[in-house]
Amino acid sequence: MRFLHTADWHIGKKLHGYDLLTEQRDAYEQIKAIALAQKVDAVVIAGDLYDRALPSEDAVSTLDAMLVDLNRRQHLPLLAISGNHDSAVRLGQGREWFESTDFYLNTTVAEGVKPVVLGDTQFFLLPYFEPFSVRQYFQDEQIKTVAEAMVRLVTAMQANFDPDKKHVLVAHFFAAGSQHSDSETLVQVGGLNAVPVDLLAPFDYVALGHLHRKEALQNEPVIKYSGSPLKFSTSEAADTKGVWIVDTDKTPVKVTFEPLKPLNDLVVLTDSFERLMDPEVAYPVTSDDFIAVNLTDTTPIANVMQRLKTRFPRIIELQRVNQLDVTPEKLNIEEVQRDPLTLLSDFFEQVADHPLTTQQAGWAKTTLQQAMKEEK
Amino acid sequence: MRFLHTADWHIGKKLHGYDLLTEQRDAYEQIKAIALAQKVDAVVIAGDLYDRALPSEDAVSTLDAMLVDLNRRQHLPLLAISGNHDSAVRLGQGREWFESTDFYLNTTVAEGVKPVVLGDTQFFLLPYFEPFSVRQYFQDEQIKTVAEAMVRLVTAMQANFDPDKKHVLVAHFFAAGSQHSDSETLVQVGGLNAVPVDLLAPFDYVALGHLHRKEALQNEPVIKYSGSPLKFSTSEAADTKGVWIVDTDKTPVKVTFEPLKPLNDLVVLTDSFERLMDPEVAYPVTSDDFIAVNLTDTTPIANVMQRLKTRFPRIIELQRVNQLDVTPEKLNIEEVQRDPLTLLSDFFEQVADHPLTTQQAGWAKTTLQQAMKEEK
Question: Which stretches make up the Nuclease SbcCD subunit D C-terminal domain (chains A, B) (predicted)?
């Protein structure tokens, strides 16, 4: 069979305050078009359908419309799991009715070890889980980590393997060796929560969600993150987003990447303020693109964000890339302990490239004296 | 056909802080038992399935389990609408799949004017609505009130009437003439929001939700509120809760009431503190019942709530029924304008049945002088 692998839709997510529903609907339409053009037999969504356990009504109606469209209108079988961003209970509302039209949505570990069979393939749809729920499921207090849990779960799944079928795992966790991107929180990936990829060897294909970059497991031919359909952080700005098309009738399975074209891109611009504001300088961005600015200037600029917004209305980040390095190891203790006025004068000279004028020095002195008086 | 009419489950509702899920599950089991014993062909739930637009996960999983049980396990067709307490969007998640097993859940006005046909009956499942949504639906700016909206909606429904079928309206609003109970807010019932019962004449039966007392429309033989399955306020303490069983093969339809037995009842006890605390006095209540106390005493009682709780752990209300009447019209202006010490002495004598002692009068004087000084 042939299926499409996507994940981490995060419907309802906002990017630095900007609503992404328009971009998410556009990405959905592209995914649907790929699914139809590629004549896939099923669509796999590997968790984090919503961005929040308590999605807004807009997010609920948007995702519902997408799932209704794919499954009820286009008659595409759906295979989905809850991710760590979803509320398993809320997402699972109605799941017992979904199976009547081959929409399989698993939200518990118990559901995950029983395969869903479509064509030549057994799908194990394992939702995001915490070790305690696997501990409960196996009644085994020894299970402390996600990796220990997966050892038991894979064994339980293997007991249900039909040797005449291909075996696909759909899961939502951090597989060891992954390079994570900023849009996943550090504390949630890696460490005790990682699953070594060796554990996943029994499967013909592993369709993962959780990390937002498909590059996270570059060296694994059949263990793949699809990544998110949209860029959710500047660390993903250079990425090409997309979905995997997986053919299970080959051994090993055949995996091809189908890119998505962002409706409004996330672009990092590194330049000086003068050039950024210069109408003569053309940047390959639209006024709806999300812009992260790396400012190369070293001098202070008044109202910098406000002024940049007149040219780039959807700025999401502003960083100074030529900042003075003031990390502790670079500081000379003697210099730091000098009197405030000397420190201020030195600092001013460093960023402004000329010393304080006599008048400025006078203002600085008066202000510092005033500040010290108030401190007492 | 024969159907069961219930409404206003309010799953997740708390009664003065007490979780009602246990009582709600018990009421559900009784409703199911009645449906099975009466061999009904369908169950109608006329809105307010949840108590809140954003129900807790516990509430979601509780209601979901009930609906799965009724429809998927017991194979009972379900006919339901969203009420004013439900979020139409959230409740409606998955509704497009539900119809495959005869579970019809309407959340929009457009859905309400198209009948669902089961056996000899056309059901019009009209969710709770605001006039603006009907204004939008008919593209008619003249529609300002719920009554005006209903005129148009009933006409639209009648255009879809099959003369060979019975016609049942399932709706969630305040029908004029109803006596409301305290558990519905005054501002939401009556006035511009009322629907005159005359408008409902075209239907063989109207299954209403919104008001919590089945007594709300006593004189209407075929326009009925089922009321809530549980007592949600002390004004309902004397009510018998239950469901209607409706047989559509008679003209007029046959309507019979099936009572529910409260697992833990809501009881009003009117008595003196001394008797209420007296272990010799037996009240027909259990320690899990919800108790509203009407205290007949006129004298002050220290820690009255705390002490009553030792005998009645789930007190939900405490009222003094022999309070002095201090409503404005009973007050003598001259009396009110007397000096604070005289007022205090008079008040003390009224509630304590004896005047202040000399020592008490001294304390009162000192305290009042102190208070007046602080006021300046």
Answer: 263-351
